[in-house]
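Recap from last week: sequence in, structure out.
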Amino acid sequence: MSKKKALIVYGGWDGHQPELVAKRFAEILEKEGLDVTLSQTLDAYADLDFLKSLHLIVPVWTGGNLTHELCTNVSKAVASGVGMAGNHGGMCDSFRENTEWQFITGGNWVSHPGGIIDYTVEIIKNSSSPIVEGIEDFEVFSEQYYLHVDPAIEILATTRFPLHTYYHASNKAIDMPVVWTKKWGHGRVFYNSLGHTDDVFEKAPQAQELMRRGMLWAIEGKDIAIERKLDPSIFESDAKMY
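Predicted structure tokens:
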């Protein structure tokens, strides 16, 4: 049996250490038996047939611009059952002008009040997701992401805002999603807002375990799509979306 394949596309703003994060995720996936391709170009999204052959796409790219054509390829691949999983700005602070990307991923970054701070990640206690099973609340010293999120996401962990004074503090206290899952067509999408720099995964090993589990959960969607012969064309529309 051939190995399941994953594609990690990394680059963009260097402050998020995309190369280190990409290599970390590659090592995790390789230990799980996947054949991993690392790419430093967005042109990796140009071959739709190749994307559809994957079990997982992992974007590690902060900022930048993604063309409509390349985003459509990612969209179609994920809708066919290919999993998508990422973290921090590498997935939800990518391609700010591309609303379709935000639609796929389930949210986008808008701020991190206070800069690098101590905060608590609170696991949703009544969640049935295997991604958070047995993981307790934990502390992080990093950026606390304030995101605009898709109401369709399944929230697996949150953090309390506000902790620092800023204009948002005049509103009521809220629990901001930190970890979530969602569907895109037949594909599974996982996001974890932790990981401003690579060492966050060393200082908070729960963050790395969440990534490992989230990536494996996303991969399972492809197997289900193949086994059940699921047809992504049922989700297609000719309506103008842009």
